[in-house]
């Protein structure tokens, strides 16, 4: 047969053979083992490349489809397994260079237009060649050919990236091949011996294409259409490869001399050129810059190329810095290189903007400039002293020119402009000091751009200026310059606030760290400016002057309130200087208060603000000094201070919102002073009331408050809009001071205002108060939730009365008919403790009893209140506010009235108009029941039973619900809504029954009465349900009866007489539940309820009968009379439990039912007990093995299943236990993991975990712990196998580790062989800690930690042998959390949830360090080793502060056990960088932790 195919080579060369046949023959020859050709693979490669080369050189005519086929054929053989095998055998196959050139040409052809062949195939061929070490020689042997390929692929990729506006998706293949080409090129480039040649090739052909590609990848706005591989992986890898190519080609040590020759000044250059051999590069910087300055074909391309150049300059400078400035050398070369790069942005040599420079480029240019000088700052290339002494301040002069460039071309709307100035300031404050007035004017005083990003950059610059001058102790000089700028004539009257929140915080911090003498000097400067330049011209009545005076006054206020107050330890000279200052300020204040302000306008308004602000500042500071420094400080106006405040309060016609706020602050100050005097004079009491009412100002409260306007706590931002928030903050924050002096009308108005602001912040959808910042609504919500309101009973009561009134506000007319007593108000004098002579009850209690009776009457009469959609929404909002109220702080009367109010709404609010849909009505009822249920849990709930009888309340509840059901309210409700509503009703009934039981008084009577009512109504409901099909009515009965039985069961066994009553009631209730549940299950409305409801009801029935039987004197056998019904239910549950997915609530209720049923079977000594035992076990095991069960489902089921298993194994026989072990053995087969049956293994693992916590009979317990070592070995093998598959880490590996940990905890007295514990440490090494999800990482981390904790806590004898293995496992956790907790860039910042999970891991490490320290006798030798491991890892990463603090606290505990010899050992053996980290750690330990511990030990017995 071989002879038949031996002529293929001739046929391929024969010109008469059709091209299609030749292609078929070539394919056949490649795949056939019967075709024998000498060197067949090489022959076929040569033939294919010859044909394709001839076609493209136009020497051969080939049909287009054959050309396409030839490329496909070449691609197939390049990627074939056969070729791989041939090459792996060492056989050499060469590829012609013409093929590589042909591929390059096709890429160029595709870049200019469509090609004749599939471009994807061409790229695939290129990929196949480059990924084969043998075939890639076609490119690697000829460096220029590879450069050409890379250039063309970069151009193609850039073209695709630039076409984003055409919405064409990127080609994944292009970028995959590009990455392969870059990797190949980088390898070849590093192998080149001639670095000059590499530099020339890269700058001539690759520099601009690579930088353009990098820029486009960085700036692309990625969309969902872009392939995720390109977006997440390829783009990053390509950028990294580009960086490596450029750095290794342009900036290598061999080129340093060439860079020196070009950039250093002539006098330095002449000294370095003496040894020059002439072999270096000529002008490398000029060559690079010339290649970056590419002219665009149009304006759009011109802008793109300028952006590429600007972004690339900073990148290239970083490369140069990393390469040439290692160890702090060549800083002058780097600086001069930086100057050339900055000039290349489009500036002249003297750093003026070039004529050709486009103003639109300023944004990009400033960003590049910022990056360049920031890189220089980080590289520490500017040494102020060295620059001045050695280099004639060449760097300083350059930076000064740069500063002048920025100030001559101010770009106030660009954040980078501010950041550039901030960097120059960080380099040397003298750079900006000559332009300080210009800086303060443009950036601080007269800044007019309020856009958020610009404002943040501006505030950061101003803060940096303050901090710099603060550190230099030159704040007075800065403030003096600032005052000159402020008082200079302004361009316009409007100026921004001088001290916003950020700047004021920075100033305050600087003043705290500043010497007191300098702070006083600043105050004198401000005061002199006011006295010399502003106040003498006050009569000119110019608004500009008033605004300047206001700004200066604000500055004085900020300074005085920021530095440390005087105290008895303050030096006397400082106290005297302060007294002199306060005296001068007092004179200014008195002069201002004497001014007769007649003219209205901005001047008068601002002058009043200044007067009040300075008065407020002076009296507050003076009082503070008197309180804290009474022995040295004497007030300049000890007797006049009160008169000063009184005079300021007499200023009338206050138009300014700030003035009104300041007057209230002064009134508050006066109130505080009087409180300090603790006088009881009647005139003082009346004065206090006047002051409190002035601060509250009911007239202002009556104005509608804007709940959303935010105030930032700054006086300068108080205006007409923010005044409401500022005033409300002042009132609420000082409420404990003014509340005792308010009249009832005042408190009522305050409460009404507070409620209105809360209501405005809630919309109909139920969104909560989530405003950021201080607004009226947020303040009200914080006050509502705070304990402050609870401690002010009058205010709290007023708020409650407003809420109750608001509930009935829209319903006054209807309430007048239903419950007129609600609308009656008890006179204030009768509210407290005044008893009625005839009844012996207080009037409020009489009123509440009347309300209760009217409420019951309305229920009997089936009264109803129609509601609109708006009213329903208002009621829902009020309920949300009510749910936040603290029930424990309510007075008995308010509590009872609120409860009766809600109950009345529940019983009467049924009828809604057409605008209200049924779910909204049911949602309103649900919220009402939920709020009432929560109210019944507080201590005041007992007072409710003094107003109404408990059984009447229960009956009224059910009567109103039955009435609403009969009116069709629940007819069209969907299943989930109905279930949720039923649950809220059950919660309410449960709370009310529990209240009756806890009270004990008349408990039997109330329960008997309510049970009889429910049984009678249930019989009637059953008949009605059959006639009308109203299943909802029956479901209400069942829900109520089940909760009634559930609450009566725990009460049994406390009293014999009571037990007789309760067993009778249980029998009475369960007798009607069976027909009702059958009617529900067979009824049409059963679809409204999930199966879980029915199961829960029948479970309650079983437990009721079990409780009744256990408390019966007779044999319990005959007391469980419905076993046939329960058995049928049991069989149905077994059928439906596991074959297919079921809701979780059904599964939980079913497991609970099986537990109750098994108890009943055991109690009745049924013959099939053994069968039931086995059936339940197998069903639960099959349920947990279900493929549809997720890990979270299994976790949720663990609690109920654990209780059931404990019940099953507590008295199981040997045969039953043996069957259980066989079942586990069948499931615990590691081979099932590979077979895809991991859920079966998980089921067995879960069973083992739960069984380890169960109480076995003695014979079973011995058997279980005897085979535990085999179980441990199998579980370890499961961990090893499952850890190989990342998808099973969370699903199987961690549950198995948890089962192991549970065995270790429970077996601490049973597992005696240390080997069985040590092997667990080995298994921990297999648990993966490299999950991409932080949630999965935390789960694995915690599981490993808990296993280690179990070992160190339960097996101290093991630690004597296994401490190194233990520490290896623990160090894995330490290094892992340090790697995950390293500081990241803003773009790589983790979410809040991920940060919290990481913080939990850090806390676990700290906790384990503490446990290791407590077991120090096992780790004495290894303490220094643990510290060395930690500092070695710490030296490699920069940790997030919160992570580092936890780890450091843990290591401190280990250092406690390091003796002096250990410290010397560490200092000797650690490497240089690590030793510095250790010394820093040990110093902080000595300073903070060690002294604290020694102090604690001093007082320890």
Task: Describe the structure in your own words.
The chain is an all-alpha fold and 1501 residues long. The protein is built from 69 helices and two strands. The chain has a two-stranded antiparallel sheet with strand order 1-2. It is globular. The termini are far apart. 40% of the residues are buried. Residues 1-5, 267-277, 764-772, 827-841 and 1495-1501 have low confidence and may be disordered.
Biggest beta sheet attributes: 2 strands, antiparallel
What's the overall geometry? globular
Tally of individual helices? 69
Termini distance?
A: 101 Å
Helix/strand-derived category reads mainly alpha
Beta-strand residue fraction: under 5%
Number of β-strand runs? 2
List low-pLDDT spans. 1-5, 267-277, 764-772, 827-841, 1495-1501
- Work out the radius of gyration: 43 Å
Overall helicity: over 70%
Largest sheet: spatial strand order: 1-2
| Mean residue pLDDT | 85
């Amino acid at each position: 047969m071989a002879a038949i195919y031996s002529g293929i080579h001739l046929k391929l060369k024969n010109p008469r053979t059709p091209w299609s046949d030749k292609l078929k023959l070539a394919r056949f020859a490649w795949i056939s083992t019967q075709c024998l050709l000498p060197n067949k693979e090489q022959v076929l490669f040569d033939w294919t490349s010859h044909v394709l080369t001839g076609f493209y050189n136009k020497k051969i005519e080939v049909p287009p489809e054959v050309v396409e086929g030839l490329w496909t054929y070449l691609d197939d053989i390049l990627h074939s397994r056969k070729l791989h095998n041939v090459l792996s055998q060492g056989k050499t196959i060469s590829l012609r260079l013409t093929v590589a050139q042909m591929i390059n040409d096709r890429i160029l052809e595709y870049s200019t237009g469509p090609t004749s062949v599939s471009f994807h195939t061409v790229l695939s061929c290129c990929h196949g060649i480059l990924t084969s070490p043998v075939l890639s020689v076609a490119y690697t042997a000829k460096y220029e050919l590879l450069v050409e390929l890379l250039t063309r692929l970069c151009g193609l990729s850039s073209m695709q990236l630039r076409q984003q506006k055409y919405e064409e998706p990127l080609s994944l293949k292009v970028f995959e091949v590009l990455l392969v080409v870059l990797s190949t090129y980088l390898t070849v480039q590093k192998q080149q011996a001639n670095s000059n040649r590499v530099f020339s090739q890269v700058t001539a052909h690759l520099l601009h294409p690579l930088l353009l590609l990098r820029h486009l990848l960085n700036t692309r706005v990625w969309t969902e259409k872009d392939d995720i591989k390109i977006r997440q992986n390829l783009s990053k890898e390509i950028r990294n490869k580009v960086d490596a190519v450029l750095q290794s080609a342009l900036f290598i040590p061999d080129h340093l001399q060439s860079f020196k020759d070009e950039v250093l000044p002539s006098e330095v250059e002449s000294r370095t050129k003496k040894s020059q051999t002439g072999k270096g590069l000529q002008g490398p910087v000029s060559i690079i810059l010339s290649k970056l300055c590419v002219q665009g074909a149009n304006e759009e391309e011109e802008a793109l190329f300028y952006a590429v150049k600007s972004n690339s300059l900073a990148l290239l400078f970083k490369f140069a810095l990393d390469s040439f400035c290692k160890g702090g050398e060549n800083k002058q070369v780097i600086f001069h290189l930086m100057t050339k790069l900055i000039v290349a942005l489009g500036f002249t040599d003297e750093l003026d903007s070039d004529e050709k420079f486009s103003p639109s480029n300023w944004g990009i240019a400033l960003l590049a400039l910022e990056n360049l000088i920031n890189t220089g700052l980080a590289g520490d290339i500017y040494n102020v002293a060295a620059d001045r002494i050695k280099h004639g301040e060449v760097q300083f002069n350059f930076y000064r020119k740069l500063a002048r460039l920025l100030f001559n071309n101010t770009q106030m709307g660009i954040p980078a402009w501010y950041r550039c100035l901030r960097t120059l300031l960080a380099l040397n404050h003298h750079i900006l000091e000559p332009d300080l007035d210009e800086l303060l004017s443009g950036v601080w005083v007269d800044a007019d751009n309020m856009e958020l990003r610009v404002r943040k950059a501006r505030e950061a610059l101003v803060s940096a200026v303050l901090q710099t001058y603060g550190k230099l102790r030159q704040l007075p000089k800065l403030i003096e310059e600032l005052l000159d700028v402020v008082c200079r004539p302004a361009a316009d009257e409007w100026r921004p606030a001088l001290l916003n929140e950020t700047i004021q915080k920075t100033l305050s911090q600087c003043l705290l760290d500043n010497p007191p003498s300098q702070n006083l000097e600043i105050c004198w400067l401000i005061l002199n400016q006011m006295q010399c330049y502003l106040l003498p011209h006050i009569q000119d009545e110019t608004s500009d002057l008033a605004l300047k005076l206001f700004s200066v006054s604000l500055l004085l206020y900020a300074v005085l309130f920021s530095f440390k107050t005087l105290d008895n330890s303050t030096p006397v000279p400082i106290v005297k200087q302060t007294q002199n200052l306060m005296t001068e300020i007092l004179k200014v204040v008195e002069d201002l208060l004497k001014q007769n302000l007649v003219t209205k306008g901005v001047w008068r308004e601002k002058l009043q603000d200044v007067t009040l602000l300075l008065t407020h500042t002076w009296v507050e500071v003076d009082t503070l000094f008197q309180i804290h420094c009474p022995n040295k400080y004497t007030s300049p106006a000890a007797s006049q201070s009160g008169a000063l405040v009184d005079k300021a309060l007499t200023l009338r016609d206050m138009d300014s919102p700030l003035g009104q706020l300041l007057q209230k602050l002064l009134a508050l100050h006066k109130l505080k002073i009087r409180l300090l005097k603790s006088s009881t004079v009647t005139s003082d009491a009346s004065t206090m009331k006047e002051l409190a009412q002035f601060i509250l100002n009911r007239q202002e409260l009556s104005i509608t408050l804007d709940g959303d306007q935010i105030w930032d706590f700054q006086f300068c931002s108080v205006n007409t809009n923010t005044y409401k928030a500022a005033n409300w903050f002042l009132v609420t924050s000082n409420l404990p001071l003014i509340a005792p002096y308010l009249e009832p009308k005042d408190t009522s108005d305050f409460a009404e205002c507070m409620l209105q602001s809360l209501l405005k912040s809630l919309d109909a959808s139920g969104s909560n108060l989530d405003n950021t910042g201080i607004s009226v609504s947020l303040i009200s919500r914080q006050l509502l939730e705070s304990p402050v309101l609870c401690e002010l009973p009058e205010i709290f009561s007023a708020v409650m009365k407003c809420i109750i009134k608001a509930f009935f506000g829209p319903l006054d007319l209807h309430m007048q008919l239903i419950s007129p007593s609600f609308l009656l108000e008890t006179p204030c004098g009768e509210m407290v403790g005044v008893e009625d002579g005839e009844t012996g009850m207080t009037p409020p209690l009489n009123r509440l009893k009347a309300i209760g009776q009217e409420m019951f009457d309305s229920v009997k009469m089936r009264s109803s209140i129609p509601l609109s959609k708006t009213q329903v929404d208002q009621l829902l909002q009020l309920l949300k506010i009510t749910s936040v109220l603290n029930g424990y702080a309510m007075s008995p009367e308010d509590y009872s009235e609120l409860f009766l109010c809600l109950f009345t709404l529940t019983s009467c609010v049924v009828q809604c108009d057409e605008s209200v849909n049924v779910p909204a009505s049911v949602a309103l009822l649900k919220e009402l029941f939920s709020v009432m249920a929560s109210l019944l849990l507080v201590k005041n709930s007992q007072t409710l039973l003094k107003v109404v009888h408990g059984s009447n309340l229960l009956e009224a509840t059910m009567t109103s619900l039955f009435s609403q059901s009969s009116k069709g309210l629940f007819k069209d409700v969907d299943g989930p809504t109905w279930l949720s509503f039923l649950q809220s009703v059950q919660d309410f009934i449960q709370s009310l029954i529990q209240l009756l039981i806890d009270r004990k008084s008349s408990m039997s009577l109330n329960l008997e009465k309510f049970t009889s009512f429910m049984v009678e109504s249930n019989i009637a409901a059953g008949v009605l349900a059959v006639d009308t099909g109203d299943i909802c009515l029956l479901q209400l009965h069942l829900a109520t009866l089940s909760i009634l039985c559930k609450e009566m069961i725990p009460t049994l066994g406390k009293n014999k007489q009571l037990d007789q009553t309760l067993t009778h009631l249980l029998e009475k209730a369960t007798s009607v539940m069976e027909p009702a549940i059958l009617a529900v299950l067979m009824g049409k409305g059963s679809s409204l309820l999930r199966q879980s409801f029915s199961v829960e009801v029948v479970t309650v029935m079983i437990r009721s009968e079990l409780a009744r039987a256990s408390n019966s004197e007779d044999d319990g056998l005959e007391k469980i009379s419905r076993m046939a019904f329960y058995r049928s239910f049991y069989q149905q549950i077994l059928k439906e439990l596991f074959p297919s997915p079921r809701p979780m609530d059904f599964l939980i209720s079913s497991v609970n039912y099986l537990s109750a049923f098994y108890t009943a079977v055991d109690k009745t000594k049924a013959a099939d007990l053994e069968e039931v035992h086995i059936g339940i076990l197998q069903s639960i095991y099959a349920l947990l093995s279900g493929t549809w069960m997720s890990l979270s489902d299994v976790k949720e089921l663990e609690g109920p299943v654990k209780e059931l298993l404990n019940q099953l194994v507590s008295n199981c026989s040997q045969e039953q236990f043996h069957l259980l072990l066989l079942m586990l053995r069948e499931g615990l087969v590691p081979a099932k993991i590979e077979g895809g049956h991991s859920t079966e293994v998980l089921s067995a693992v879960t069973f083992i975990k739960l069984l380890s916590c169960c109480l076995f009979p003695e014979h079973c317990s011995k058997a279980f712990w005897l085979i535990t070592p085999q179980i441990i070995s199998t579980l370890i093998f499961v961990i090893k196998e499952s850890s190989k598959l990342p998808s099973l880490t969370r699903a199987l590996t961690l549950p198995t580790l948890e089962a192991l940990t549970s065995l270790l905890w429970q077996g601490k007295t049973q597992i005696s062989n240390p080997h069985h514990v040590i092997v667990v440490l080995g298994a921990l090494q297999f648990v993966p800690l490299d999950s991409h999800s932080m949630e999965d990482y935390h789960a694995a981390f915690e599981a490993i930690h808990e296993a280690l904790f179990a070992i160190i806590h339960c097996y101290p004898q093991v630690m004597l042998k296994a401490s190194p293995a233990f520490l290896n496992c623990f160090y894995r956790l330490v290094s892992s959390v340090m790697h995950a907790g390293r500081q990241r860039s803003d773009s790589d910042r983790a979410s809040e949830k991920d940060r919290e999970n990481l913080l939990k891991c850090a806390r676990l490490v700290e906790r384990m360090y503490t446990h290791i320290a407590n077991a120090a006798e096992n780790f004495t030798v290894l303490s220094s080793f643990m510290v060395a491991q930690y500092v070695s890892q710490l030296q490699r990463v920069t940790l997030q502060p919160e992570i580092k603090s936890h780890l450091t606290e843990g290591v401190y505990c280990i250092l406690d056990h390091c003796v002096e010899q250990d410290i010397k050992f560490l200092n000797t053996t650690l490497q240089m960088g690590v030793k510095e980290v250790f010394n820093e750690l040990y110093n902080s330990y000595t300073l903070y932790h060690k002294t604290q511990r020694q102090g604690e030990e001093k007082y320890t017995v």
